[in-house]
Write a structure and sequence with these properties.
alpha/beta; Rossmann fold; 3-stranded antiparallel sheet; 9 helices; about 15% strand; binds 2'-deoxycytidine-5'-monophosphate
Length: about 220
């Protein structure tokens, strides 16, 4: 079974999806982390497209969700912290807009979800990657709230709230307007505005929607 949550950066998708995965004992897939891993490779390739595509086809990207943490590995090296750097933040939307990269990451995701029950978060999961998903959610929140959440998530950092807000606004713009699978609400997605919901309310609401599907799938 696959349940998806799409929405802009900082809308609360990943923390909500992780809490839901814990409560329902299902797997969590952070599609943004995979685009970040590709971006980390792009930066290591000196942002040279030819070198980047060669490397992308040679390396092995893998991931593991354990203890409420989504770990990403490139050739066995854990790059989970490095993919959250400002260098990656600054180029991830450019890399995610490359159609070849989207095909590559989509394949990785399809392979994973065929093996287990998953809740995944991203931008285009309900529209382009898993249009067949049993349940789709679309999370939104005010830009200011999203910027504050992202800054808190980054922990100790030299980056200012203004820089985070600017980065999120610019990524929203690129993610929503790119030609390849832009950030878009699927017509059958349930919209949740997290500005006015408490975290616990969001998690409880989503779990309530998923439970009947989980029971039905397990019975088959
Ligand atoms: O969720 P995040 O901020 O970690 O995602 C990083 C970037 O990856 C985001 O700016 C857009 C891109 N992305 C995407 O294009 N499609 C997805 N399904 C998930 C993320």
């Amino acid at each position: 079974m696959i349940v998806v949550i799409d929405g802009p950066a900082g809308s609360g998708k990943s923390s909500t999806a992780k809490a839901v995965a814990e409560k329902l004992d299902i797997q969590y897939l952070d599609s943004g982390a995979l685009y970040r891993a590709a971006t980390w490779i792009y930066n290591k390739s000196d942002q040279n497209r030819d070198k980047f595509f060669d490397t992308l086809n040679e390396v092995n990207i893998s991931f593991k969700y354990s203890d409420a943490f989504f770990n990403v590995f490139v050739d066995g090296d854990d790059i989970s912290s490095e993919i959250r750097s400002q260098d990656v933040n600054n180029s991830v939307s450019t890399v995610a807009a490359m159609p070849e990269v989207r095909v590559f990451i989509n394949k990785l995701m399809h392979h994973a979800v065929s093996q287990n029950h998953y809740i995944a978060d991203g931008r285009d999961l309900g529209t382009a990657v898993f249009p067949e998903a049993q349940l789709k959610f679309f999370m939104i929140a005010d830009l200011e709230v999203r910027a504050q959440r992202r800054l808190k998530e980054m922990g100790e950092t030299d980056v200012s709230l203004d820089q985070v807000r600017e980065n999120i606004a610019s990524r929203d713009n690129i993610d929503s307007n790119r030609d390849s699978d832009p950030l878009k609400k699927a017509p059958d997605a349930i919209e949740i505005d997290t500005t006015s919901y408490s975290f616990e309310e969001q998690v409880a609401f989503i779990c309530e929607q998923i439970r009947p599907h989980l029971i039905a799938t397990t019975k088959q």
